[in-house]
Amino acid sequence: MGLLVDGVWQDKWYDTSASGGRFVREDAQFRQRIGGEDDRYPAESGRYHLYVSLACPWAHRTLIVRTLKDLQSHIDVSVVSPIMLENGWTFVTEEGSTGDIAQGHALMHQVYSAAQRDYSGRVTVPVLWDKQTSSIVNNESSEIIRMLGAAFDDLTGNHLDLYPSALRQAIDDWNSRIYPAINNGVYRAGFATSQNAYAEAYAEVFAELDHIDAHLAHHRYLCGDTLTEADIRLFTTLIRFDAVYHGHFKCNRQRLEDYPNISGYVRDIYQLPGVADTVDFSHIKTHYYASHGTINPTAVVPLGPDIDYARPHGRAALAEEPAAA
Ligand SMILES: N[C@@H](CCC(=O)N[C@@H](CS)C(=O)NCC(=O)O)C(=O)O
């Protein structure tokens, strides 16, 4: 775990000393768009590349949207090693990791310095890379999924709309409560270095899960009967919850399996065509338990839990009306 300072790698764990033990996530720095008005990055088949970790919930969002939007043959993917230690994310070619198939680097931070020689900041995945200009288009998952969700529609003929105009307000509302409380909330609990910071995050995680569970009693998806990007953004945290966040990040008031509605909702999304293939519990568990030496110094990876996400979800029959957050 570390970061680049003026293009030079430094091995450093997150510094929580200035924030009362609270983990504060840094903003992503590359924020360009495919299909933007300046036409710098036009939507073209084979031009763009995704760097992902199968362990990472943020990167996982991009893989799901790539699948749902039939982009597999248009955007190829490099998968990093699940283990992230003193060199940060690295490239290996074993057990589901592909190596860097776009540029042949050994280390993910070389992708960042290839884009910007004096880059200072964290070296995160996902990264959307442009092979033509050797630049990073974007390294913020919420923006990458927006682009993949619309920019390539003419190329693929896939017009599935994960951010439909009629639901945008509701989607934005859900995103703005779910990001702090759930997506980042589990990290704030897990990376907290004081009891108070942990307790604060824990309370927020479960208050929001309770709210979502009550909502899902009457609605198949967050915004009614239409699957949207808000569901994808929530799902990638939920699918990791019982395997990792419950134990490793101490979010252990209850498992998601014990929520009457969330448990079926997770299976519903898991069972959408192609989604199960994007979920790799081996990378997920290995990453968290074997990479965070400050939390789990033995790096022993737990064998459980044993949950069958392919069993019936029973949610198709829910009568729906559009729903706000
Ligand atoms: N805002 C980013 C966050 C991405 C992120 O933090 N990814 C984690 C992996 S789960 C990472 O690469 N962390 C490495 C680090 O912080 O040094 C996004 O949503 O794309």
Automatic annotation (TrEMBL):
E.C. numbers: 1.8.5.-
GO molecular function, one term: oxidoreductase activity
Chain coiled-coil ranges: none
InterPro entries: Glutathione-S-Trfase_C-like, Glutathione-S-Trfase_C_sf, Glutathione_S-Trfase, Glutathione_S-Trfase_N, GST_Omega-like_C, GST_Omega/GSH, Thioredoxin-like_sf
Residues of the signal peptide: none
Keywords: Oxidoreductase
All residue ranges annotated as the GST C-terminal domain in the record: 164-288
Origin species: Congregibacter variabilis
Record-given protein name: Glutathione S-transferase family protein
